[in-house]
Amino acid sequence: MRKRVEHMRKGRPHTFERHRENGTVLQMHGSPLPGGGFVTTFNDITEFKRTEAALKQVNEELEARVSERTAALSHANEDLREENRQRAIAQQQALHARREAERANLSKTRFLAAASHDLLQPLNAARLFAASAPEDGVGAMRRSLGNIQSSLEAAQSLLNPLLDISKIDAGSWDARPEPFPADKILAPLAAEFRVLARERNLGFEYVPSSCWIHSDPALLRRIVQNFLSNAIRYTRTGRIVLGCRRHAQALQIQVLDTGPGIPANQIDHIFEEFQRGSNTETGDRGLGLGLSLADRMARLLGHTIHVRSTLDYGTVFGVDVARTEARSEPQAGPPVPRRRNDTALDALQILCIDDNPASVTALDGLLTRWGVTVTTHDSPATLTRDILASTTFDIAVVDYDLGNEQPSGLAVIENLLHNHGIACVLMTADRDPAVRQHARSLGVAMLYKPLAPAKLRAVLAHIRTRQQATNS
Asked: All domains of the chain, ordered by start, with CATH?
């Protein structure tokens, strides 16, 4: 009001709005007259103001809606990008899986092609020795049997690496990393290969290590053993060194040789299946699976393999293993005196259950030669309660696969353990880790087919010793 009066006094035009209590809005416009005086007009602009306020509110709501939709669109775009990323990863994994499957199929095809000759050779030799054995005298027959045994061992040595590779590729190898001193596996390997090196007029050096590492001792031993076997196979003159290099977090176990070396263009291929060097001796057994198996074992354990080679100077193979803090190992007590006959198998009563007649006959003959009394059955159905009650069996040797419509060997073992208290040994050709885990949960020794007589005898002797210690 004061401003309006001031403008009127000074003869200036003015426009003001006044909001009344009932919501009406009046616009007052004043203008000076030419001859003096002042004129004021009043306009009701209530509807105009309401429309203006409504437009302002709509505009604000529209801006909020645009911001909301923009945010939703950005979120949808982000979800779409994440979905595309996941789809790309899935496609990459599917492509990798397909390539791995194709590589596995190619490996199988290559194995059949490579193994057909190498496997048939020892099997054919064994068959010829077996055919000629009945016609020979006693001494010649014994030599034929020895040759048959050597031929079968040769065939088994060709098959074992492929079985190991198949287990790893199928994800059925049960790795058990643990802390242990590196010398635990390296010292025995050094002693073993020092003898082999001496036979080939090669020098052999082992540099012991006091470091502790974290790995699976059995698998790591196989890796280093493959390195040493390759060094022995390819080195004609000079020496082989087994040692370690310490790093901040890892210990690199190294095998150095003075062999012919590996050409640079072949280093990327030496870990592929069926790759064998051109410098192996004639008659050397193997399908070129050693380094491929070592590579798979290293990847299973999360270890890294390194190769350095110089032609005509030699090669260095190394595997990086995580270091860990040294721990105190339990002190071994005084040696327990062993009784003279604690490993003898004389007078043992053994029950053998196997549905394969040839296997039963062979096992019966082997155990009988060891002085064991053997009772054989080809199925659980032939085992009656009366037989188990009338004969006191010390040990039962049971095959896992007992034929169609028959319980598994583990089911039979559970019955023998819980209802008759008979110690059991499981024989199986099935490498399924579930079978091994089940046998372990029952506390049952397990032997894989084909059986090694020495291992079978050692297991039976161990059970016999344990039984004698319990009864004494």
From this structure: 2-44 (no CATH), 102-169 (1.10.287.130), 178-278+286-324 (3.30.565.10), 349-471 (3.40.50.2300)
